[in-house]
Amino acid sequence: MSGQLEPLPGTSDIWEPEVSQWVQLERAAREVFARYGYGEVRTPVFERTEVFVRGIGDQTEVVQKEMYTFADRGGRSLTLRPEGTAGVMRALANQGLGDGVERRVFYMGPMFRGERPAAGRRRQFHQIGVEAVGRSSPLMDAECLAMLVEFLRAAGIPGHRLLLNTRGTAEDRPRVTAAMRAALEPRRDELCEDCRRRLAENVWRILDCKVPSCQPVIATAPPIPELLGEASQAFFRRVCEALDSLSVAYVREPRLVRGLDYYEHTVFEVTCEVASLGAQTAIAGGGRYRVALPGGGDAVAGVGFAAGVERLLLARGWGEQPAAALGPVEVYVAGLGPAGLMAGMRLAAVLRQAGYRVLAEVEERSLKAQMRTANRIGAKMVLIQGESELAAGAVLGKNMSDSSQELVALDAVPAWLAARVGPRAPAAGAGLPAAGSPV
Ligand code: HAM
Prior knowledge:
It contains 17 helices and 16 strands. By secondary structure, the chain is an alpha+beta fold. The strands form three sheets. It has an eight-stranded mixed sheet, with helices on both faces. Strands 13-12-14-15-16 form a five-stranded mixed sheet, sandwiched between helices. A hairpin with a 5-residue loop joins strand 15 and strand 16 (405-409). The longest helix is centred in the first third of the chain and has 18 residues, at 18-35. The relative contact order is 0.11. It binds histidyl-adenosine monophosphate. Residues 83-85, 113, 115, 120-122, 125, 127, 129, 131, 260, 282-287, 289, 304-308, 310-311 line the site of histidyl-adenosine monophosphate.
């Protein structure tokens, strides 16, 4: 039975207090991105399969092996988004991206990849990402990276490294491919089976192989920047100069290619070496790209990145916390007898409008049982209404920190709480007539 209640491998239920850590991370992202002029976009979680096959590239691992693809009732092929960029580009193109239109957007939400689950590798994971389209300047790439580093700092991520490289453009590709093949072909026997196939099909993919025995061979591949034409080298030099002038620290990684095919020019990855991440040290990645659209419209060029929320939390040491039974409550309203319970509900509603976090008893239970609940949820104050309190138009207010108690007139309760728990800002809309109440 219990196995059937567990979430599927590579997916999780996320509980408080961890949810609050997610919200904090999302808030840090919103604050930093807004300062750079980025606005939020929310695109569908599933799209026509073509959006990803064309956008990400049919030679990529993600498209070939990891997509959750299914047919809808009309037989149309749909896919759960494995990443954010392709869908966001479709959405921006749908709005019309003519010459001179500049858009900067950010997004956060679940992505789906059928990978083998491991520490930091999920089948449903969450990304916080950004995309900037309409400017092809190397300064745009540098600013995007500066913003990523600022976000990681605001999110409290310790000791990360920014790895930087360039893939050049489509014009450079035949020359790089030929040089790469010439260098790696003589060592074919030392490569894994997949990489031997990649030698003929897509030699770039070899550089992204994670099989340990392939690593010494990959280390001898020629550095990509040296194989590029002058224009691509100049673009990369300018990115590096801009990063230097913004004091953004980076490490050149001349064989970094990234696993998605839409990249050209700048590519980067941020790694963090903490034990909780296991082998999944990449907490964010991105670069400059040209994303092909379904239906064959002009490819959309831009620059962006995505960070993995689960990995950011693991890097901070926040993952895997025990579930809290109830949210943090300040005030517990206990009630005795049907009239006491009903009055308690009304009092709780008033106190919530005044801005307090309140839980009211809803069942006829002994005062002892109700006090046990108040203790368990960590309420600071308990307000009790039985027959005699109701008759006096008052509540018995109990301070849980020193067990002192006193009778408080009903209309004095907010002030009594403010003096003990602290004042609160009233709830938004407080003071307006409630829905359905007579005007
Ligand atoms: P990506 O490198 O595939 O790039 O993913 C970005 C980040 O998502 C990774 O660095 C990692 O933190 C997280 N991530 C990826 N797969 C998983 C997984 N299975 N489990 C947990 N976390 C994962 C992209 O997705 C590009 N769209 C980034 C981009 C935006 N490039 C340009 N703009």
